[in-house]
Amino acid sequence: MNARRLGQDATVLAAAGADLQALGEIEAWARRAVVVPDGAVLVDTHVHLGRDRDGHVLPAAGLVADLDANGITAAVAFPADEPGAGGDFREANRRVIDAAAAYTGRIVPFCRADPSAAAERVIAEAHAAGARGLKLHPVAQRFRPESPECIAAVRAATDLRWPVLFHAGFGARPLGPAFAALIEAVPDCRLILAHGGRGDHRALAAATAGHPGVLFDTAVASLPDLVTLPPERIAFGSDRPYGDHAQALHLVGVSARVAGWDAAALAGVLGGNLLRWIGPVMP
Amino acid sequence: MSTADALRVVALAAQAEIALVRRDDVAGALLAQAARAADGMPAGAVLGEAARVLRAGPGREAVRQVALSLCRMGLHEAQADVLGGGA
After folding, report:
1. CB B10 within 8 A of CB B79
2. Of chain B's two ends, which shows fewer C-beta atoms within 10 Å, N or C?
3. SS3 for A234?
């Protein structure tokens, strides 16, 4: 694995004329924004593995190198948007589960499904193979969170005591009423709303405030959204390969500074809040 | 620096972020403006480097990704200034 700067191949950056020393200094400064509390376990909630149809790529070896470089113990990883010929993500799920087996203790595999493509069967198969959660993307797979198909998928995941990570970032539709309806339909669900719910943060925060089973991840999130949430509802995430770990750590550090999180709150954001849901990294 | 100064950087960096996400050529100009607006502020160094790296390697995907990360760091530093939690 070649050296990297901000998640990118340093050789490629140098060839493009980037100043690697300056980038390295900024990367170190960004990591120092977080004063990691003693005993904190850093777990990245949000990583796409594989080759997305939009061209973004992250192999498992690259992810583990990134984790090592940034002092992160493990990452929740799920397939990129590569549903395969059947449109059901089964092959991509298998690759993520295999990657988790190859890098024991570093990758927590979530499966990905399209609610309109045999999701309940896909979830059952992934569970049997070792997956520990579900990722759904309403924009990429073009469904509504409150649709009967999505409710059925979330019900199936919840019956397995799985958390469900939802894309809740860029997109035009209002999200507050949609997730309120989903929670009403599956009251015992545990949802991780990605990107701090930046697609409709105020409405989402209000709609989910009374539901204990909601976390917001910090992956490419907006600072004003994070600092207005209780820290026990936040989980660190990077959105690799769309984001990078140094930037993701910097966002958490600045949020802690602005919101005044204490060490316990920060440790929760960096990994404790997620681990309370999924159990230890090594099951 | 005043809140207005920080807010100006927030606006420019937020526009640059979306331009970078959408691979819009206007990103370079917006980053250069954001870097000038942030001169002397905590966001200045990262926005300046974002503008420089994008100018050095326009059209390169790795460069776009690095510029995007730097832009987001600058945006968050400027937002922290607005919110009263600046470095």
Report:
1. yes
2. C
3. strand
Tokens of A92: 């991509």
Q: Given CB atoms, is B25 within the 8 Å cutoff of chain A?
A: no
Does the ipTM surpass 0.85?
Answer: yes
The beta-carbon neighbor of B49 closest among A7, A26, A220 is A26
> How many residues appear in chain B?
87
Search chain B and give the residue with CA nearest A222: B76
Give the angle subtended at the CA of A195 by the CAs of A162 and A70, to the nearest 5°: 85
**Tokens found for residue A132:** 């520990």
Read off the pLDDT band of A1 (50, 70, 90). Answer: low
| pTM, two decimal places | 0.96
* Below-70 pLDDT ranges, chain B: none
Rounded to an integer, what distance in angstroms lies between the CA atom of residue A278 and that of residue A130?
13
Q: What is the pLDDT of residues A105-142, one digit of tens each?
A: 999 999 999 999 999 999 999 999 999 999 999 999 99
Q: What is the pLDDT of residues A181-211, one digit of tens each?
A: 999 999 999 999 999 999 899 999 999 998 9
CB contact burial A41-67 (16+ within 10 A = b; e otherwise): bbbbbbbbbbbbeeebebebebbbbbb
Nearest to B80 among A16, A30, A258 (CB): A258
Q: What is the DSSP string of B30-44?
A: HHHHHHHHTTTSHHH
Contacts with A58 (C-beta within 8 Å, 6 or more apart), sequence order = A47, A48, A49, A50, A80, A240, A241
